[in-house]
Amino acid sequence: MRAGNRMKLRMQQALNLPSALILSIVLLLVSIICNMALAKESNAIPAESQPQAITLAAEDSWPPFANQFGQGISHRLIQAAFKQSHIEVNSLVVPYSRALMMAEKGAVDGVFNVTRENSTEQRFIFGNTPLFIATASFYQKKQKPILADNKWALPKGTVIGVIKSYEYGDEFPKLVKQQQLNIVTVANQQQLINLLLIGRIDAALMFDLVAKENLKKMGVDDEIIPAFANHSSDIFLAFSKGNPQAQTLASQLDAGLSQLKATDQYNKLLLVAD
Asked: Which pLDDT belongs to residue 45?
């Protein structure tokens, strides 16, 4: 009887062995499939929803938009816009000409405060939405006014001061050639204003809010005054063509700026001074 029971038990164990093996294989397959599904789901999450960090070159002498302390309207707008996509912004504060060079070479992901015009579109990637619009004018010494009513009436040979590597609109090269203007290039706004004060140049070309900030700071806002307009610029954050994610970043910035404008936060950031 015991021998019969042992035989029966062994037969049951033999019959159960394949079932256990099959069950193990099934469980293994289910585990593999679940892991693949999770991986696919993770990859399907858009890159913009995942925290990132980018490095931008910021100009050091264009207050109230960007100053030597890494503060200003542009800093606030860019940080707030990218925050909508969970992107952290790290800024390197350098002279504008160096900022352009760094972005063009791919040393940084982008550069602050670039006018979108023919010359810059060949060098950088732009989104569709400017950070803001900035107007620029010819400035003169009050005691020595320019003998012209507009830029196209500037006397031939007029000496005009500008900042190195700044963009002054697509018309400016034509204006220089047509009116045979003599261009003096300097590194910053203070140098430009000083040249105007001592009579080394006839006029200085400056963006209006930037001129207002610097003239007031230097205490000469009653001596240097605007003569007439030069142009209005759409000012952008320009992205490096060396970054394969440049177009994605430009789209994320556009989306962030749109969200800021929808909640009126944009106007607050644009108007509030540091």
From this structure: 41
